[in-house]
Design brief:
This protein has 241 residues and is an alpha/beta fold. It is built from eight helices and nine strands. The protein has a six-stranded parallel beta sheet with strand order 3-2-1-7-8-9, sandwiched between helices. Strands 5-4-6 form a three-stranded antiparallel beta sheet. Helix 4 packs parallel to helix 8. The protein binds adenosine-5-diphosphoribose. The site of adenosine-5-diphosphoribose has 23 residues, from loops.
């Protein structure tokens, strides 16, 4: 199995801001001001607006999958080894490029989740405190307009990422691990390369520049993902098929 971990860098050339590059999302605001359960309880409108703005960018046609997303879909289609993409990204560019075997460990911008029953539903438009859960019904009158019944289906700080059991199993058994467009700042994803390497996998980094955990990789290919990922996929398919 080939496990591919992707981060914000793979979507940067599609026009989606990364988190920690200059001009990145977190440069404009502090993480504690948006992506935490506490802020959602205290100020749901701020959190809704942050994600509504990012969701509109995904659905207004201005953002499309780039050559790196498409190369990973080609790898999944042509490789003799099964391919699993584990993405930290909440955009849907891997799906739109054709990747199928895909886990969104930090959730998905185009889905919403009920804070009461946990039901996950598609969400293409703006969210607000007035959204009702299709299973639980509308927000109770007492809380109307004050608390959000539906939240973005996105993993916030202080929360556990999704699909960790499947990911650990894949890391334990993969022959190749490729990390693309991630700075190595946030665990558990930042620890995946060391886990795959200790399980005997060949571990490769593709990034604009060496990440914080570059020393865990056997090889690194540095430059824009739209050039480096297709080149790596072509070489892999030519060599290992
Ligand atoms: N091609 C390749 N790499 C790129 C490109 C590009 N065009 N543009 C940026 N990069 C690299 C940067 O050099 C950086 O190392 O992508 C990485 C992006 O790092 P971050 O902005 O930290 O994003 P990411 O690693 O995905 O963040 C992980 O942190 O805030 C949380 O939940 C959030 O999923 C996110 C997690």
């Amino acid at each position: 199995m080939i496990v591919v971990l992707t981060g914000a860098g793979i979507s940067q050339e599609s026009g989606i801001s990364t988190f920690r590059d200059s001009g990145g999302l977190w440069e404009q605001m502090r993480i504690e001001d948006v992506a935490t359960p506490g802020v959602f309880r205290r100020n749901p409108d701020l959190v809704y607006e942050f994600y509504n703005a990012r969701r509109r960018q995904l659905t207004d046609g201005s953002v499309r999958p780039n050559a790196a997303h498409k190369a990973l879909a080609l790898l999944e289609e042509k490789s003799r080894e099964p391919v699993l993409v584990v993405t930290q990204n909440v955009d849907d560019l891997h799906e739109r490029a054709g990747s199928r075997n895909l886990l969104h460990m930090h959730g998905e911008l185009l889905k919403a989740r009920c804070v009461s029953c946990g039901k996950v539903v598609p969400c293409l438009g703006d969210m607000s405190v007035f959204d009702a859960c299709p299973a639980c019904g509308p927000v109770p009158d007492a809380a109307k307009g004050k608390m959000g019944r539906m939240r973005p289906h996105v993993v916030w700080f202080e929360e556990m990422p999704l699909y960790m059991q499947e990911i650990e199993r894949a890391l334990a058994g993969c022959s190749t691990f490729v990390s693309i467009g991630t700075s190595g700042n946030v665990y558990p994803a930042a620890g995946f390369a060391a886990q795959a390497r200790s399980a005997g996998a060949d571990v490769v980094e593709i990034n604009m520049e060496p990440s914080l955990n570059a020393h865990h990789f056997h090889a690194g290919h540095y430059g824009p993902a739209t050039a480096m990922v297709p080149a790596w996929v072509d070489a892999y398919l030519a060599g290992k098929g």
